[in-house]
Amino acid sequence: MFARVSQIAGVLAVAGALATPVAAKDKLVINSYGGAYEQIHRKLVIEPFMKKYDVDVQVITAYSADALAQLRAQKAAPQFDVIHFSGGQEVVAAREGLISAIKAEELSNGKDLYPFATEGLSRGEGPVHAVAAIGLLYNKDKAPKKPARWADLWDPAYKDHIVLTDLSNSYGLLGFLMLNKVKGGDIKNPDPGFDAVKGLLGSSVVVSTSPEMQQNFAQNDAWIAPYAQDYAYTLRKAGLPIEFVQGAEGTPAVYLTANLVANRPNQDLAKKFIDFSLSPEVQAGWATELRYSPTNKATKLDDTVAKEVVYGEQAVSGLMRFDPVAVDAARASLVERWKKLIAR
């Protein structure tokens, strides 16, 4: 009788254990940008974070403009916990209450970030976790000399070997705004830039996409182009002798931000994810894999990588940012005017 009671008790215990629900893992929903970027994002951030904190991270591919549109549409019940932007949309998202403010002291890596990376926190924006600097790409084997300034684009030494990028490309737009600035203009007054570019059109090629940029350096004897440091690395991997130079007048850049979405229940976990993205180890990985510049001053890079990105106090001091709200407001008119200019 005792044995039977024990057997029954054992069966009930097993049944009870089977009936007990297994606790679900915490979950985050984030966006990434697809392609090679998303592959590296998973390798450096997403998968290590899931392993460290034993959580699930769902990734939805959504580029910045689409991500902002989704946040707006889902404002009452957003699906994202962390949203990444690369086009300045965090400024708009913060103003519209779509993202929540983060205090620097809530991030263990906050104290080590360069000032430009935390400047937006006071406005409710997320921190900058990586930078794609815009400068001058040049063919070190063919160009008669190494450029040093944006103004060198008008040096006769480079005539007939210049590549310009269409303004529908973010890198091209920032490059144009820098040329306009060098010539004395600003976002509200792009005339100096367009006049200066008009003078270059007779001795340059205009491209719209990155593959076209590569084709011109590989096949069409291009020597110099305003473009991004990460793409200089892409060209070198393709076997081309291309180097990146910061123009002495300043270095505009694409600032990649990680933002805390408002009205979500697991913001503490989301902050940990953002903080993880800011660690020196992760940022060294971005620099090594894609040649993005780190925003954490504690990041250590080997000499080869350090020479190919904007790295260190002195180099970072040259970074500048055009007002993303003003740029977004002017974008359509600038692109339309550009199209008319190059169609002549």
Automatic annotation (TrEMBL):
The keyword Signal applies. Pfam families: SBP_bac_8. GO terms for biological process: thiamine transport. GO terms for molecular function: thiamine binding; thiamine pyrophosphate binding. Residues 1-24 form the signal peptide. SUPFAM superfamilies: Periplasmic binding protein-like II. It comes from the Bacteria. One of its GO terms (cellular component) is outer membrane-bounded periplasmic space. InterPro entries: SBP (IPR006059). Keywords: Periplasm, Signal. The keyword Signal applies. PANTHER family: ABC TRANSPORTER SUBSTRATE-BINDING PROTEIN, THIAMINE-BINDING PERIPLASMIC PROTEIN-RELATED. This is ABC transporter substrate-binding protein. It comes from Microvirga alba.
